[in-house]
Amino acid sequence: MKIKLIEQLNVLIVEGDRHMRMLIREMLFALGVKDVAVASDGKAAVEEMQVFRSDLVLVDLKMEPIGGLEFVRRLRADTKNPYRFVPVIMITAYADLDTVAMARDVGITEFMAKPISATILQQRIERVLKDSRRFVEAPEFTGPDRRRSKKTALGGKERREIPPKFVDPPEDLPAAPKSPETKL
To answer: Which of 108, 112, 162, 172 is the most exposed place for a label (fewest CB within 10 A)?
Structure first.
């Protein structure tokens, strides 16, 4: 993804609580974002992504019928979906270490604990825009490189068994997918 300004982003909010969706939407508008779409769960987000060109997704954890983790897992695994590389920030009230690790392991780009503020939201978005990580494709994982450090090799139990396969996202995203082949 080309580096954009916050004001140039198209943002999809996937949040189960209507009030929280509207709060996040208003925060984005206050930050200068002009194009925002909303979905109440992962299933509705899949449908929204068929018609809305997302540069960034803000997703909640607990939703029905498809929660945030499953939505991101499907998004990242779908090789036919041009939006599989879109940065995803998880915003959730469940910020324990296990939840953060699960989010990281499905391909979340950044993580935010509720309650949130416009300032913290802006900082996370700017971090995603300025410090994008390469995508790794492995048998059980596709997503941003989970290692933030720029070290090239680690020893001991943190060493990768097999060198990672890095996947470069397209320079710019195409228009919203219309193909029936794109399924999340």
So the answer is: 162
Residue 104's identity, in one-letter code, is R
Cis peptide upstream of residue 65 (ω within 30 degrees of 0):
yes
Is the Cβ–Cβ distance between 94 and 184 less than 8 Å? no
Give the pLDDT confidence of 94-125 residue by residue, as tens digits: 989 999 999 988 889 999 999 999 999 999 99
Which CA distances in Å does 139 have to 36, 76, 142, 164, 165?
33, 12, 8, 10, 10
- Give one DSSP letter per residue of 43-59, joined into a string: HHHHHHTTT---SEEEE
Q: How far is CA 36 from the centre of its chain?
A: 15
Cβ partners under 8 Å of residue 166, min gap 6: 134, 135, 136, 137, 145
Task: Kindly write down the DSSP assignment for every residue of 96-163, as one continuous string.
Answer: SHHHHHHHHHHT-SEEEESS--HHHHHHHHHHHHHSPPPEEEETTEEEE-S--S--S---GGGS-SS-
Distance, C-alpha 106 to centroid of its chain: 10
Which of 25, 20, 91, 52 is closest to 176 using CA atoms?
52
- Topology, domain 6-167: Rossmann fold (3.40.50)
Q: In what order do the strands lie in the sheet with 35-39?
A: 35-39, 10-14, 56-59, 88-92, 110-113
Ranges of each domain in the chain:
6-167
pTM here is 0.81
